[in-house]
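ok so for the tutorial part 2 we go from a plain amino acid sequence to predicted structure tokens. step 1 is just haveing the sequence, like this:
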Amino acid sequence: MIKPSNYEEGKKHPVAFLIHGGPQGSFSDGWSFRWNPQTYAGAGYAVVMIDFHGSTGYGQAFTDAISDHWGDRPLEDLQKGWAHALKTYPFLDAERAGALGASYGGFMVNWIAGNWKAPWKCLVSHNGVFDTRMMAYSTEELWFSTWESGGADVYENPAKYDEFNPALHVKKWSVPMLVIHSDKDYRIPLDQGIGVFTALQAKKIDSQFLRFPDENHWVLKPQNSVQWHKTVFDWLDVHCM
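step 2 — the prediction. this is what the tokens look like for a chain of 241 residues:
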């Protein structure tokens, strides 16, 4: 948890709930201008980050525990972590909170849109998996979807890929969402982001789509990063400030 830069004792502050990617990754002491929690704190948000099943740094068994469990164990961890944060830090405003994530974090944002939407005033899904079947057929990481699905090939066992498929839960979506995707993302191709935005628009849910024609799975160019942060903070401000 990181306090906002304008923290005041006794005051409630809006929250940015960040969900890391990988999924085999971790929130640690690394620094980058991509998904830097200090930027959210600087914008006036308290930042909450949970290392869920699949995170690194807690032993290999814990890291491996997310494979074949993308939508259940990590979701439970995020829910328990959110409840713990609210209980521990009374300055967190549960009524003004947004959830954000990229890559696997984007998948989780798409997943919670239909499976844990109650706490969130808005969502941000960046380069996230939307349709797990098509992800398996289109990603340049040809081994990845098979590995993460317990060794099942999508053409042999397509039902396995539907167990945690956000596309099958769109009927329950209602939370405003900002979608960000890049044309040169071959890991989670552009059609995944377009699918998320099309679903939101079809359901007439408040939504925006930010597209970077010249970026890949990461937003690396400084001016694009400025545009990214302005768009994300504007979105959060509208819904959570």
